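Input record (one chain):
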Amino acid sequence: MPFLLRLQNYRRGTFQLLSHTSRLPLRYANTAPSNFKSLATLGRIQRWRNRILWLSVPIAFFGGVAFVTYVPDEPSLNPEGFIPFTLVAKEAVSSTSSVFTLSPRWLSTNAQIYDQAWKDGVWSVQVKQPQLQIARSYTPLSPMLNSEQNLDSDLRLLIRRDPQGEVSGYLHRLPVGAEVELRGPHLEYAIPNDVEEVVFLAGGTGIAPALQVVHHLNVLNSPSGSELPRIRILWANRRREDALGLPTNNQEKPAEDNSSTARPYKPPSLLARENLQQYYQGELSLQYFNDDQESFITEDVLAKCFSDSVRQAKKCPREGSAGRKLILVSGPDGFVNYYAGPKVWQGGVEHSGPLGGILKRLNLSGWEVWKL
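The corresponding structure, as predicted from the sequence alone:
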């Protein structure tokens, strides 16, 4: 087929010839983009694909190793920040007091933390009131003789409902299953290793530190076969019903009350269940004093307590060098102030402070006093 040739361009001594009939009208032209790629372009794409593939293999490998070996830290009980616990049980042990059982959301290292705290001495945790953003310290009950408690995780707190207490009132209003935030542990008193005798003055829920001392000396810090320290606990309460664990022969049923506000009689259970005197392998005595029965820890009672201690020490001398004699006082501020003088604040930290009150007037020698 004949065709007309014409000169198009002159470039570098060459001619470019175009067919006169090769140009079509625009209305017949295909305006869609072409899918055609040159061999060079396809080669470059394939090379990049190969590079990406080789890079993805080590990235996937090391990413998998990191995922397997890295486990995010679960928050454990610590003195710096609050972590959530769950209120799993709340047992009313009197008309004003309850035992709260708290279980942590995570069980990672709490067992080791508790174990070290029990070994150190008397310790507490802080409970947060989230609405007011305040916290109060409470002493966990010792885990002795309580098969229902998970010793690796749960904490129990004996808390009295104070009409003016923001945190205690908040806790008593919480239902079982609610979240409670705790921070700790905080060491209140490091129990020395060479203790010979302990006299503990406890007011109200201040019995909780006394139980910690018994647990510490009986289980965690006494060498096998050694003679355990003598322990004498004097426990004062405002009402008889708060004296949990009174001996059976003293648990007379109260007189009948026909008023509409009468509460059914329920024998105290907490200390009866733990049964201190059977639990402790050494010499332990526990005396109860109740304001509503006009039974008080008077100066004469304390003087007799310490004179009995002297007679007992002479009657049953201990082998080896004499150990340390401790007087521990725990309870509301008024209780502590009356018997041992007020605690003091120094540098933002509360300290035991100088001795005062009845114990100072007794002029005891050879005894160390600590206020909790």
